[in-house]
Structure formats: structure tokens, C-alpha cells
Write a structure and sequence with these properties.
Helix content of chain A: 55-70%
Radius of gyration of chain B: 17 Å
Largest sheet of chain B: 6 strands, mixed
Structural class of chain B: alpha/beta
Oligomer: heterodimer
Strand content of chain A: 15-25%
Number of strands of chain B: 10
Order of helices and strands of chain A: HHEHHEEHHEHEHEEHEHEHEHHHHHH
Number of strands of chain A: 10
Distance between the termini of chain B: 19 Å
CATH class of chain B: Alpha Beta
Strand order of the largest sheet of chain A: 2-3-8-5-7-6
Order of helices and strands of chain B: EEEHEEHEHHHEHEHEE
Helix content of chain B: 25-40%
Number of domains of chain A: 2
Strand content of chain B: 25-35%
CATH superfamily of chain B: P-loop containing nucleotide triphosphate hydrolases
Strand order of the largest sheet of chain B: 6-7-8-3-9-10
Structural class of chain A: alpha+beta
Number of helices of chain A: 17
Largest interface: A-B, 29 and 31 residues
Number of helices of chain B: 7
Number of domains of chain B: 1
């Protein structure tokens, strides 16, 4: 009952000054619109840039590193146990790159309930032979289907069909940059030299474009068997095990766990790519800061308009108080005015924000390094809309708080006697 | 004793700005049901100040004030607002109508605030009050479309909406011409006679005061005649 009356009075006061009200609401609308658009756009861009690296980076990579034995023979000798030993005689063993017992490890990983998928990989150093010149290169031997399921391999194969890599024996998907240098068209046969000096002929079935041109100049993909043949190794030869988890945040702990369990090197994505996370969080921070600034400016607009309204309506407030409206009633009336500006402006802002984001989503965005992106990326995360909505209410409430308090403290005697 | 609706006991008030001046000096009097009282006195004698203390709007005083037998001192602001809403009707020199609302709504507002009747009933009662004052034809107009005399009558209707214990007026005819003053006075007279309405009117119009049942005359913060 009382609430209805307060809303009624607020509405009348609002509509009596509808032009100012509109200006105030437009301020909020503009703030929220920009807030939503900015965050959607920025976070879409972040996701895209992160995706460049994170999507095709394993959450945990298991590998062997060539390093000197941690315990040299002299350390094991009891007589020198408490001495400072600097005699280092044992050199790294050959074949250390190979993961021993890779098959049981892969089986164990596949049984782990936290693991989304496992893909084995072989990295082979080669030279691409172009006429009389040798270009250094890396051939990644992959399990084509698993690689595609876990790391979206097909997305980066811009020409040719990625599955041919599995079906055609001795085939290769060349990096776009490498292919251009070698002038190799799809269907051509190219020749590579392995690090052991053997020559090998491979059929080009596709081009690979990662978005990072330095990588494309060097890297190529072949299937596991071809790579093993290339290196002259048996079918059990694997240099990397790539693990993708359900929860990326568990990666650091699990990497440590696997390191101890399987006794091999394990690196998590956070450690390997910490710079990307920093970049994303700073960009997000900046967009939040700009959005919040816009809203605060809108809040000052509301504050001004309410203040003006209170000066104008001094008489009305006085008579309302004289006829039985308490200070808190008057306070509620002005808070209601502020909040309805916030709700109206905010709701419109969310709508326009969505519209503007959708519009940006349609703008063509073609860049050589990002073959899969055709328009500007937008992230339609409902969280932005919730934050925007809540923030519009909070700002308008704050903007209304002081003017309302002032209105509630108006002494009717002073106003009425002053006439 | 139950006939006493408003009682002031030794009410004293000081103004502190710019100098401390005692404006009211231990004022004591009471008003009975259906009294028609006018307070007169020269400018600055403290009659308006007294009225605002009696109206509960001014709480900065010493002494005791009882309205309907209930002490008003040391009450919370919201409680006093409720007392004003329910028991006191105001008519000021200026009409203080809200231009955002129709005449009818202006009259209804204190009734809606009281919440004793449904919206429909309040509207019906407001129309009745306007009818008593002879301005029911203007009910749906805006206050700024009305003449000064009509506005003041709307203000009186607004004061009546909650059937208050007492109507307080601060120079209610001060802004009106002779003819309209007459009309307003006649309305007050009728309210007192026909509806047994108690009235406390502050005025400097001695002619007006002479026609009321009881006159309280003030001088320099004291009551010199009552």
C-alpha cells in the first residue's frame, strides 16, 4: 500500500521532469552499452588470441629432456659422500628423447578420470631439401584423429583434407610458409633429410597455417608411422605424450604428480605459457576500468539531476512532510526515482550492448595470420550482462543516496515559514 | 477532561541565530473538541512559532505538548509524521499543492498515506470533501489551472481528508482578496458549526479573528488574552 503510493509519487515527479530524466537515463544506457560492448569484444579477442596458443597446447606435456645424470658416479661412492664433488664424467645417454614404456603410460593416463584425452607425438628434426638448399624444419608425428579431437588440428589445415594424412602413406601436411619456400603444391612429392642423414620422400596432402608465421615456416605434420619410419625407429617410439584435462586449473598439480609417478619430465600449460594469462588479465582489467568509469560518469549525471529536482521540489517535499510523510518516505521516493532511472537506462543499455556486440560480430575481419576468423570475435558471456545490470543499479543507488538523504532531512518549517 | 484534544504546558522556545532570543515564554493553554480558536498578535510575537510547535513539525522546544492525551516530546520523527497524517490538517498561507498531480489526487495523498481506506474509498471521500467546499467540478484539473481562492479551498479539502482532530491554519487568508477571505472564513465557520471540527487559526486579520469563538492574543512570547 505504502509502497504503491511511493512509486506513484516517484513516477509523477519523474514524469514532471521527463526530459532531464531521459538525459540521465541515456547516460546510464550509454555507459552500460559501452561496458557490455567493450567487455564482449575484448574478451572475444582474448579468447581468440589465447585460443591461438592454448587450444593446441597440451595441458600437460610429458617428455624426456636431454640432461646430464643428476647423480654422477663420484656421488655414489661412500667415501666422498660428505664432500663437494665436481667431477662430472657421465655424459647424457643416446635415445634419451624416447619415452620408455610409452604404451603403459598412455594406458594409465587414459584411465585417469581427470584426463579428457591423450595424444602421443614424435618430434623429428629434419631438413627440407629445396634444390641445393636445405631448410631446417620440424616434423611432428601425430595421431591424426586424436590430435584433431583434442587440439582441433583440422582447423589449421587450410588447404587439403587433414584426414588424408592418416590415409595416405608417407604423406605430409606442410606449414604454409615452408610450402611457399619450397614451391610445393598439394600432390607434389618433397624430399627431406633426417638428422641422421637419410633421405626420404613425402607426398604433400595439405597446408598448415597456425596464425604464427614463424611456426608455419618450420613445422610440418606427418602421421606417427611415417615419422617413425623417417627416424628409423620401431613402432613404440614416442617423444611426447600430450594430455588434455577436463579442468585446466589442475594442470600444475597433476604435472607434478605425473613427474613423480612416471619418472619423466612433465610441464603444465600455465608454466609453459604464463605470458598469455598475464596479457589476457591485463586487457580484461582495462576494459572493466573503462566500463566502470563510464558508469560512474553517468552516476554523477543522475546525482546532479536529482539534486536539482530536490531544489525545485523543496515545496512539495515540505508539504508531503507536513501532511504526514516521514523522512524515510521522502528518502524512498527519491531512491525510487534514482533506481528507476537505473533500471530503465540499464535495461536499455544491456539491450543496446547486445545489439552493438552483434553488429561488431558481423564486421569482416580478415587477417592472413588467422585463417579461421572471418569477423571480429565477440564473447556473449551472460556474466557481462549480469555485472552490467548489477552495476547500473549500484551506481544509480549511490548517485541517489546523498540527494535522497538531503531531501529526507529537509525541515518543512524552514520552507513553509520562509514564504 | 476527554474534551481536551490539544494541551500545551509551559512551552518555551529560543532562537539561537544570530543571538539567543526567547520567543515563547512558558505558554500554557488547551483546546477542546469543536473549538474554533484564532491566535492573533503583532508580527514577531511568536504566534506562528507556537503553531509550528503545536503542529509537531518543530521539535526544538521546552515544555510539554499533548495531542489527544498523548505526549509528543521525545517521539521519533516517523511517529510524529504519523500523528500529523492522522490527527492534524494543515492550511498554510500558500496553498502548497503539487502541480504534478490533479486536484483530486492532491486531496487524496494524505489519505493514501494513512492507508485506512482502500484507494477507491479515499477517492470517494476526497470527492465528498471537494463537494463540501464547492469545487468538485475542478477535481480533474491541474492545480495551476485554478484561481487562488479555489486553490486554497483544495488545500482545505486536503486538510480534511483524514477527518483530523484539529485543523491548523497559518494565515490561511493572508494571500486572498476580501471576497475569497470571506468564502474561506465561511467554510471554516461551517466546518466548526456543522461538522464540529476543531480549528486553530493563526492570523493577523483582526476582523477575521473577531468572528471566531475564542481568541488567543499574544505579545512578546506571552499570552495576554485567551
Amino acid at each position: 500500500m505504502n509502497f504503491k503510493l511511493i512509486v506513484d509519487v516517484s513516477k509523477s515527479l519523474l514524469l514532471a521532469r521527463w526530459k532531464q530524466t531521459l538525459v540521465a537515463a541515456i547516460g546510464v544506457t550509454f555507459g552500460i552499452t559501452m561496458f557490455i560492448t567493450l567487455l564482449s569484444f575484448m574478451s572475444g579477442l582474448n579468447d581468440m588470441l589465447d585460443g591461438l596458443i592454448l587450444n593446441r597446447t597440451p595441458h600437460i606435456r610429458l617428455y624426456n629432456e636431454i640432461q646430464a645424470s643428476e647423480q654422477q658416479p663420484v656421488d655414489l661412492y661412500p667415501a666422498y659422500k660428505n664432500h663437494h664433488n665436481f667431477v662430472r664424467s657421465v655424459k647424457p645417454k643416446d635415445e634419451l628423447l624416447q619415452i620408455h614404456n610409452s604404451a603403459p603410460i598412455i594406458d594409465a593416463l587414459k584411465k585417469d578420470s581427470r584426463v579428457f584425452g591423450v595424444a602421443p607425438k614424435i618430434t623429428a628434426q629434419v631438413f627440407y631439401n629445396v634444390g641445393s638448399i636445405d631448410l631446417t624444419g620440424v616434423i611432428n608425428g601425430i595421431d591424426v584423429e586424436e590430435e584433431n579431437r583434442l587440439f582441433f588440428f583440422s582447423t589449421y589445415v587450410t588447404a587439403g583434407n587433414y584426414i588424408d594424412l592418416k590415409n595416405t602413406p608417407n604423406s605430409i601436411v606442410l606449414g604454409k610458409g615452408a610450402a611457399e619456400k619450397m614451391m610445393a603444391a598439394i600432390g607434389d612429392i618433397i624430399q627431406v633429410t633426417t638428422s641422421k642423414g637419410e633421405r626420404f620422400q613425402l607426398k604433400v596432402v595439405g597446408y598448415f597455417q597456425s596464425g604464427i608465421s614463424d611456426i608455419d615456416k618450420v613445422q610440418s605434420y606427418a602421421n606417427l608411422n611415417t615419422t617413425q619410419k623417417l627416424l628409423g625407429e620401431s613402432t613404440g617410439y614416442i617423444t611426447d605424450i600430450q594430455v588434455k584435462l577436463y579442468d585446466i586449473l589442475q594442470a600444475p598439480n597433476m604435472a607434478k604428480e605425473y613427474h613423480d609417478k612416471f619418472n619423466i619430465e612433465a610441464i603444465d600449460i600455465q608454466t609453459a605459457n604464463s605470458q598469455f594469462e598475464t596479457g589476457s588479465s591485463v586487457r580484461t582489467l582495462i576494459s572493466y576500468a573503462v566500463g566502470v568509469t563510464l558508469l560512474i560518469v553517468a552516476g554523477f549525471g543522475i546525482y546532479n539531476i536529482l539534486n536539482m529536482m530536490i531544489y525545485e521540489k523543496m515545496d512539495s517535499i515540505a508539504i508531503l512532510k507536513a501532511t504526514g510523510f516521514s523522512g524515510s518516505d521522502v528518502n524512498k521516493i527519491f531512491i525510487t526515482i534514482a533506481l528507476s532511472i537505473g533500471i530503465f537506462g540499464g535495461a536499455l543499455g544491456l539491450l543496446f550492448g547486445f545489439g552493438l556486440s552483434a553488429l561488431i560480430d558481423q564486421i569482416p575481419f580478415n587477417t592472413a595470420s588467422l585463417p579461421t576468423v572471418k569477423t571480429y570475435p565477440i564473447n556473449y558471456n551472460p556474466r557481462f550482462y549480469m555485472i552490467g545490470g548489477v552495476f547500473s543499479l549500484v551506481t544509480t543507488y549511490m548517485a541517489g543516496y546523498f540527494p535522497s538523504r538531503k531531501a529526507s532531512k529537509i525541515d518543512p518549517v524552514v520552507i513553509i515559514r520562509g514564504k | 477532561m476527554s474534551d481536551i484534544i490539544l494541551e500545551a504546558k509551559k512551552i518555551t522556545k529560543y532562537f539561537h541565530d544570530p543571538l539567543t532570543v526567547q520567543v515563547l515564554k512558558e505558554i500554557s493553554f488547551s483546546i477542546n473538541r469543536s473549538d474554533f480558536v484564532s491566535v492573533i498578535g503583532k508580527s514577531g510575537c511568536g504566534k506562528s512559532t507556537l503553531l509550528y510547535i503545536l503542529s509537531t513539525m518543530d521539535t526544538d522546544y521546552e515544555g510539554e505538548l499533548f495531542i489527544d492525551g498523548v505526549a509528543m516530546r521525545n517521539r521519533k520523527e516517523s511517529e510524529l509524521a504519523k500523528v500529523r497524517n492522522e490527527k492534524i490538517g494543515f492550511v498554510f498561507q500558500f496553498h502548497y499543492l503539487l502541480n504534478e498531480f490533479s486536484v483530486l489526487k492532491n486531496v487524496m495523498l494524505p489519505g493514501l498515506k494513512l492507508g485506512k481506506y482502500s484507494d477507491k474509498e479515499v477517492e470517494h471521500r476526497a470527492m465528498e470533501k471537494l463537494k463540501i467546499l464547492g469545487i468538485d467540478n475542478e477535481a480533474l484539473k491541474n492545480p495551476n489551472q485554478l484561481s487562488g481562492g479555489q486553490k486554497q479551498r483544495v488545500a482545505i479539502a486536503r486538510a480534511l481528508i483524514n477527518d483530523p482532530l484539529i485543523i491548523m491554519g497559518d494565515e490561511p487568508t493572508g494571500n486572498l482578496d476580501k471576497k475569497n477571505s470571506e468564502i474561506v472564513f465561511n467554510i471554516f465557520q461551517e466546518l466548526a458549526a456543522v461538522y464540529n471540527q476543531s480549528l486553530l487559526i493563526v492570523t493577523h486579520d483582526n476582523e477575521f479573528a473577531a468572528k471566531t469563538k475564542r481568541i488567543i492574543e499574544m505579545e512578546d512570547g506571552n499570552i495576554i488574552r485567551m
